[in-house]
Amino acid sequence: MDRRLPLVTAAAATLAAAVALDRGRTRRAALRHAAVTGGSRGLGFAVAHELLRRGYRVSICGRDETTLELARRVLSRAGDVAAIPCDLTEPDGARRFVAEAQAAFGPIDVLVNNAATMVVGPLETMTEADFERSMRLHFFAPLRLVRAVLPGMRARRSGRIVNISSIGGRVSPPHLLPYVAGKFALTGLSEGLRAELAGSGIRVTTVCPGLTRTGSPRHVSFKGRFRREHGWFAVSDALPFVSGDARRTARRVVDAAERGRADLITTLPARFGVAFHGLFPGLTAMLFGIAGRWLPRADGVGARTVPGRESGSRWAPSVLTRLADRAAAELNQEPGPPLGREST
Fold first, then answer.
1. Residues 294-326, buried b or exposed e (16+ Cβ, 10 A)?
2. Number of H helices, E strands in the chain
3. What's the CA gap between 69 and 85, in Å, rounded?
């Protein structure tokens, strides 16, 4: 046996690894423009900042022009940002966002579908319009955005699509039915897209965050006994060891996009919940049913919606929500003095 053969084999393996690494770097280097929906606050704001930190040019969109402009001012300290006001629930919203983003920074290499809305309360307080609104934003808006960016990505044979669903898109708790209906639809769309686009050079990642401290409860709508609904929701969203840090979540989302991962569940409790539901769906439903009996009833304001910022109680804001309240200031959920600091 030729003694040089092992050396030749090792050299070939090293060369192959180097080529693969170089290709990976080339693919990442080619990803230069990212579009983030709902990027003006919360998790979308954190994801936009992380993308900028890694050298991307970033386009964000939102419905509130004041919040959007504040986000642009802060994010622009980290890189090039285009802030585009639009309503993605409108049929033409997705096309307009993509067109204006591409006019600003060229082809979109990374699309992050993050925009979300939520209404909390028992089924008796929900209207068909609540379900329609959720489907328009959580399902049809991502579908339209994907269709708008796909021709360019197919032509370049490269691209990343990140659909930020939710743990509520894998496991369905009570008092969140319109939200979870939309998120389940997005999860199915996202996983099917990855299969459809296999071999095209376009990778689709489905992200299902667990509870994340973004300060979002002040922008959630509540029904029925709205103060009690807000209390349990805000406290659950803020507890350490149960909820995740938004900036760490954003780093993991961008890592998953760059690597082209199929899916990402961001917290240990969420991963456990999904696994438990997969093994014991009946038991999961029974436990949620027990929990639902402790949740507020449908009286109070009934089907009328009250925003979270008007739903305070002795439970929230309180020491129990301190971490989420701090995150709200950092992630542009409530304009104020912390917005003057540069995000890190």
1. ebbebebbeeebbebeebbeebbbeebbebbbe
2. 12, 12
3. 9
**Phi, then psi, of 107 in degrees rounded to 5:** -55, 145
59: tokens are 């386009």
Model confidence over 157-211: pLDDT tens digits?
999 999 999 999 999 999 999 999 999 999 999 999 999 999 999 999 999 999 9
For 216-272, how does the pLDDT look when each residue is reduced to its tens digit (9 = 90+)? 999 999 999 999 999 999 999 999 989 999 999 999 999 999 999 999 999 999 999
- 56: annotated active-site residue: no
Q: Do 343 and 330 contact (CB within 8 A), yes or no?
A: yes
What angle do helix axes 65-75 and 42-53 make, rounded to 10 degrees? Answer: 30
Q: Is 262 helix (H, G, I), strand (E, B) or coil?
A: coil
Radius of gyration of the chain (CA): 21
Distance CA 213, CA 168 (A): 16
Helix or strand run (H / E) with residue 60: strand 57-62
Annotated catalytic residue within 97, 179, 226, 233: 179
Q: Where are the beta strands (DSSP E) in 145-220?
A: 159-164, 202-208, 212-213
Buried b (16+ CB within 10 A) or exposed e, 85-96: bbbbbeeebbeb
- From residue 191, alpha-carbon distances to 123, 163, 185, 273 in Å are 28, 9, 10, 19
For tokens 């029904």, the residue is 223
Domains of the chain by start residue, with CATH: 27-334 (3.40.50.720)
Residue with tokens 């993605």, as numbered in its chain: 88
Q: Is there a cis peptide before residue 317, judged by omega within 30 degrees of 0? A: yes
pLDDT number for residue 16: 46
